[in-house]
Amino acid sequence: MQVFFGDPGRFRLDGCALTIGNFDGVHLGHRSMLERLRAEADARALPTAVLTFEPHPREFFSRTEPPARLSTLRDKLAALRASGLIDRVFVFRFNHAFSRMSAADFIDDILVRELKVRYLLIGDDFQFGARRGGDFALLSACPQFVTEAMPSVLARGERASSTRVRECLAAGDLDGAAHLLGHPYTLSGRVMHGQKLGRTLGFPTANIHLPHRRPALEGVFVVEVDTPLGRFGGVASFGRNPTVSDTPDYKLEAHLFGFSGDLYGRRLTVRFLKKLRDEARYDDLTALVAQIERDAASARTYLNSLQREKA
C-alpha cells in the first residue's frame, strides 16, 4: 500500500477507484465499503484508493471541544494496510484553505485532475465542500467517473459507524464496540518517561504517549499489550490521574503482569478488553495502592477466565 501526503498530482498517477472518508477506527462498516471498492476496482482493472483527512474535519472546526478520536493516523493507516484491500491512501491536510474549497472545485481539482478518479464509492450520507454544499447528486452528474453510494452496514441490528463506536466506548461497553469494530478496541503508542511513581508503589507502568487531545474512553481497564518482547496481560489507567496530578492532559499507563525490563522508546499496542471502573480521586497514596491492588486482582481473574475459555 502506497501512502501519499500533499498534492498527489506531482506523482503522475493513473486512474483509480476511490472512496472518501475519515475512516476513524476502520470498523465493520468501513471494511464492507473497502471490500465493495475492491470488487468494483477489479472489475474495472483499477487500483483502489482511499482519500482521508488529517486532522479530522470535526477536530478542525471544534478546536476547543474536539471530538474523541478512535485511532491515530498511524493506526488508521496500519488498519487499512492490514485489510489487504487498498493500494493507495491519499492523506489531505484539512486546513482553512481546504475547508473553503467549493464542492465544484473539489470535484474538478481534486477528484478529476489530481486523483484521476474513474469510479467513486461514497457513504449514503456523504457531503463535502464549503458549507457541505456537495452531495451524491452533484457527484453523479460528473461524467468523468461513475459514482455509487454504499448503504449502511448493520452489526447486531444497528448501523456500524464511528459515532456509535464512540458511544459504546464512552459508556464502557467494550463488547459493543468490539462487535462494531470486528475486534477489541486498540491503541498504539511509544513508551515515554513519566513521573515513575508506579515503581515506587510496587506497580511499575509503561507511560504510553498518544496524540489525542480527547480519548474515546476513560477509566481503568483489563488489557492485553503487545510489546517487542511478546504479549502481556495487564491493567491500564486512561485518564488524568487525579490523585497524583492536576494536569488536564490524558495519560495511558499500563502495568504488565509478569514483565520486567525496559520499554522506553518502544511502540506498544494496547487491546482494551474490559472496563473495571471509572477514575477516582483518593485521599492518599495508601488508599490509591489498595485500589490498584484490587484492580490488578480483578484483571488477573478476568484474564484467567479468558484463558480457560480458550483452552
TrEMBL record:
Q: In which pathway does it act?
A: Cofactor biosynthesis; FMN biosynthesis; FMN from riboflavin (ATP route): step 1/1; Cofactor biosynthesis; FAD biosynthesis; FAD from FMN: step 1/1
State the superkingdom.
Answer: Bacteria
Q: Name one Pfam family in it.
A: Flavokinase
Q: Does the keyword Kinase apply?
A: yes
Q: Where is the Riboflavin kinase domain?
A: 180-304
EC number(s): the record gives 2.7.1.26, 2.7.7.2
Catalysis: reaction(s): FMN + ATP + H(+) = FAD + diphosphate; riboflavin + ATP = FMN + ADP + H(+)
Ordered alphabetically, the record's keywords are:
ATP-binding, FAD, Flavoprotein, FMN, Kinase, Multifunctional enzyme, Nucleotide-binding, Nucleotidyltransferase, Transferase
| GO terms for MF | ATP binding; FMN adenylyltransferase activity; riboflavin kinase activity
Gene Ontology biological process terms from the UniProt entry: FAD biosynthetic process; FMN biosynthetic process; riboflavin biosynthetic process
Tell me if NAD is a UniProt keyword of this record.
no
Q: Which family does it belong to?
A: Belongs to the ribF family.
What biological function has been recorded for the protein in this entry?
A: Catalyzes the phosphorylation of riboflavin to FMN followed by the adenylation of FMN to FAD.
For this entry, the protein name equals: Riboflavin biosynthesis protein
User: Which organism was this protein described from?
Assistant: Crenobacter intestini
